[in-house]
Amino acid sequence: MTDRIRVFAPSSASNLGPGFDVLGLALPKLGDMVEAEPSVTPGIEIVEVTGDGGALTRDPTRNVAGIAAADVLRRLDGLEVGAPPHRGARLWLHKQMPLASGLGSSGASAVAGAVAVNELFAAPLSRHDLVASALVGECAASGTPHADNVAPSLLGGIVLVRSCDPLELIDLPVPTELRVVVVHPHCEVSTVVARRLIASRSYALDDAVANLGNIAALVDALHRGDLAQFGRSVRDRLVEPVRAHLIPGLAEVKTAALSKAALGCSISGSGPSMFAFAGSDDDAQAIADAMQAAFHDAAGLESEAYVGPVNREGARRVE
Amino acid sequence: MTDRIRVFAPSSASNLGPGFDVLGLALPKLGDMVEAEPSVTPGIEIVEVTGDGGALTRDPTRNVAGIAAADVLRRLDGLEVGAPPHRGARLWLHKQMPLASGLGSSGASAVAGAVAVNELFAAPLSRHDLVASALVGECAASGTPHADNVAPSLLGGIVLVRSCDPLELIDLPVPTELRVVVVHPHCEVSTVVARRLIASRSYALDDAVANLGNIAALVDALHRGDLAQFGRSVRDRLVEPVRAHLIPGLAEVKTAALSKAALGCSISGSGPSMFAFAGSDDDAQAIADAMQAAFHDAAGLESEAYVGPVNREGARRVE
Q1: Which positions of chain B have pLDDT values less than 50?
Q2: Taking CA atoms, what residue in A is nearest to B224?
Q3: Exposure class string for B226-235: b at 16+ Cβ within 10 A, else e
């Protein structure tokens, strides 16, 4: 057991209103754990998956943690994509967060797998390479390369993905008073279905312009620590209107959050979780309570709420 | 003559790559002048227009400077839109920059008209109100409300228009070393035609996402003074591809600019002028020379080039 290491990767909220596929942040508390041991057999073996209710495969070529971990093995020895690995590792994946929740579940698994294998071999890879490996796993899960979950889960904080190809990540400033609320209602939205819905249509220039103004103002507000401007900028005219019908009670939950001084409220990733921002712990708790009550009253949905500051640490080795 | 005041409003480059309708900056040197005198006859009279080659009307209800000036008269007395004005002013509009150039010609006229009339009556209006009045004039010229020319022309600097309704403007930081190059080729692109072209089609989400990543990175780069990141972010996948065919030689001009260390290069406003950024005066001059040579060699077009720092001052009263 002395060779076994453990890595925790946090959940994440992506899009953050105007920033579809380019903005994400690491959430407090919730996330996935991967344990890893070196193996004499080259390649990745997934020994066990827990906490998934039997939903996830142990086939390492189809499990996001396995795929990301295998990409790390490849990079460790500078191998081409598809080349047989020189080294081997055995993984235990412990899901500690809901699947298909919009909270970056597949991203957290991919990050935990990638970081665990890197740690197992003395951590030679850069954070940039590790995000790239996690992205390979995430892409297998969602069908499209988008780094707005894996990047914050790995790096912590609020991350801007300027570009996926080539991968360019930017750490944005996080105002100290900023608090995040996420509420996960007990219903499921498939990431693949949610992405197909938005990919199959085209968009009006006016709506793109609205999001351009808002994401630019959001980044400016983070730099200047202006939470009021930040809150005004958490608006999405591109994707939220198209996906809103997938989430029962969305309008009421948003109204409830904003009535409690939320600094913006929108869908977390592809939903059904909703996020909101607040400027204090007390506001955050009141917003969470109001959002849960609205999910219950408007849609008959039970839910869990998570409240706290942005997770600045990202993925980390734990004892 | 003692009551006559003169106001200069600079030209502007808008869009700046990814920021269609939301980003603009004030240019050095080039701009429009308005002279104004109080009149006992209520309302705006345009006495003379010079420098326009006879292209512009003196009808104050159809001239952008007149429309903006009339809106200022209305605001000065808190009147409803359409109410007869209490005060009067006579204007002389001196065009000192090309029309339909993509350099914010109508915006400069609107700003000069609005600021001149405000100055004439002891300047009681806020900058925000003056931008709103200039926007009324600009809207009459272009057919759509977009403040990304009038706001920088009035305020100076690099301005983000988060929203036009309600009007919300954000001054962005300007790195001290940043230089702007604009090259105006001797051909015309109608703003109305250029806008109709882009408004009549719909857009792919991928292209909107690319611009979201770039505008967010551009704002971050301005705050951090990172000119390399700024340059990488001056890219437009929404509008430039649709309008490129309106500007003969565009591809060659862009290649020429980037070959001389330009920090990005794209269409200024609706063209045909092209802009580029540079990190020094020497680079800026070399880029301007290369862009002019490319317009000549690739499209047989003569051109003028303007080079300098961002105009931080905006519209100003002159003696």
Answers
A1: none
A2: A223
A3: bbebbbbbbb
